[in-house]
Amino acid sequence: MTKREINNQRYLLILGVLLLVVAMLYLLRSVLLPFVVGIVVAYFLNPLVNKITCNKISRNTATALVMGLFLLLLLPFLVLLGSMAVHQIGEFVSNLPQYANSFALKIKDYVQNLQTYFPNLLDKNWEEMWQGNIGESLKPLGKIFQKVVVNGFAFINVISLLLISPVVAFYMLRDWQSFTGKIYDLIPHKHKQNVIDGVAAIDRIISGYLRGQVMVCVALGSFYAFGLWLVGLDLGLLVGFIAGIISFIPYVGSISGFLMAMVLVVTQYGTMSKIAAVVAVFLIGQFLEGNFLTPKLVGENIGLHPVWVMFALLAGGVLLGLLGMIIAVPFAACVGVLLRYLIAQYKNSRLYLDE
């Protein structure tokens, strides 16, 4: 068998393994989320466990200490956030018809002002069609939303995450070195150093991006939540925190949070001072993110362009939902490192050098 045939077989094997992994992810996407979250938590905590084991403490003891401290800090936060979310969502659902009618009245004023300049813009009966029973029509929607949140999401996803993910994270942390060692043993000796260098580059990108982005999202979510709470918005704490958490998708978090906050402030107040206060909260948040948080915590040399990150996150979300968004950045980092390696190989080839 010639060298070229061996290389072709190797490439086909790699391609087959990648296609199999993608297919398995797609088929098992509904049950993989708690396991992937557990692996991500282990990845975050592994450096701390490694530092503790350097002090002649066993891996099992270090893993137990780190996981215990992590859960001790996380659980009160989740309980507080969950109680706040349930309380604010309950209030919002109960006041939804009132908010809808208030919003309709404000829109009515804007449309009436617009009709003074464009008399034939709308039908004469538009007021009855718009305002009629808008509040009553939204009551079933609010009940459905409340049932979905309470019975579906909370019972299945959150419980599975809380019960399964910590167990997966513990075992992955304890056996991290064993897992990685077995994977490295499968790499052909000829290419082992190249693969190790590539994995190191990927790890540097992923760790720099993910750990920094988590701190950015938490900081932004806290700022937006506190700012909207000071403005006096009902549901402001929840909207602000959600806007910060989904800020790992460039521009999507701030834009969606701003739009939700604007709907709330127009519905609940409608005054220019309150609207200006909401605008100021998001402008200050964007200024802090662009000039301080992202450059300091994430850095500008991670090798991932914001457009590439946005595309990867949105594509992952469309294909695999929340699971896809979690693995999107690691996948984008792998593709980026692979492309840079292939470009370097191409520039050293006879095809590029024209030899």
Chart the SSEs and their pairings.
Blueprint: H1 3-27, H2 29-53, H3 59-94, H4 96-117, H5 126-131, H6 134-174, H7 176-185, H8 192-231, H9 236-245, H10 252-268, H11 272-298, H12 306-320, H13 322-347, H14 350-353
Helix pairs in contact: 2-3, 2-6, 2-13, 3-6, 4-6, 4-10, 8-9, 8-11, 8-13, 9-10, 10-11, 12-13
Helix percent reads: over 70%
Which of globular, elongated, flat, extended, rod-shaped describes the shape? globular
Total domains: 2
Distance between the termini: 27 Å
Q: Kindly state the mean pLDDT as a whole number?
A: 77
Order of helices and strands: HHHHHHHHHHHHHH
The percent range for strand residues is under 5%
Low-confidence stretches: 144-155
Q: Helix/strand-derived class?
A: mainly alpha
Describe this protein's structure.
The protein is mainly alpha-helical and 355 residues long. It is built from 14 helices and no strands. It has helices at 3-27, 29-53, 59-94, 96-117, 126-131, 134-174, 176-185, 192-231, 236-245, 252-268, 272-298, 306-320, 322-347, 350-353. Helix 2 (29-53) packs across helix 13.
